[in-house]
Structure prediction request, 280 residues.
Amino acid sequence: MEYYELKIIFPEVVEEEDTGIIVADLGDLGFDSFQQEENILNGYISAISLKEKKTEIENYLQTLKNDLIKYEWSKMENIDWNAVWESNFEPIQVGDLCCVRAPFHQPSTCRYDIVIMPKMSFGTGHHATTYLMIENMFQMNIQGKNGLDMGCGTGILAILAIKLGASFMDAIDIDDWAVENCLENIKTNGVETKVSVMQGDASRLHATHYDFIFANINRNVLLENMEKYASCLTTNGEILFSGFLEPDVQTIVECAEKNGLHFVEHHTKDGWQLIRVRKI
Prediction:
């Protein structure tokens, strides 16, 4: 498949936590993968996605130029995505209990050792929102319960939920490549009989009722589908929402409250937010 590289050049060295918002925004615009080194952030997008989103991407990039940020495009072919990930993906440890690593890393001594080959899917544990979700899953009682991983990406949350004792998980993502990657990862982690992977969006949520839901997506999608999340959650069921920034917290909480989901707690990491709600 033909790909294009977007090279974003900052006036000085930047940390990954400082480019997180740009990565998230470009991910929403169709970019599949990113590499960062010193003052340069490289983003990769298929020719098909670029054609569909070119105007939106250019408009977004123009807003970045106000901060003296430069950018340039180049055409690429035959990218070895596994090599790209292997050069960037380091194991992630969340507290003392959970480690997320790739198959080419040595097994960890953590109680929960999760193997993820991320390829082009979101959800390796590196992004603050995924880290927040994993961290807060350990504070929930999901033993013997059924759950939903909405916008599952690599399937990391569904996998960990099963390892934490959940009975069954539905994992849904709108992207076909995420679904394929999730299927590969649940098999690698030995939970394929307890996770059902589906392609689609919130329109897939009908009569099924879940005891808990993980929704690490973005502000607009969460607000648009709040009613559907609430309707398929059992009484006393809980939802972890993430994928948004501090200014959006009040809006998300207010929308949740209008749909019978009561605020429980709020956490933050590197500017990204997580809220936990409960259906009463």
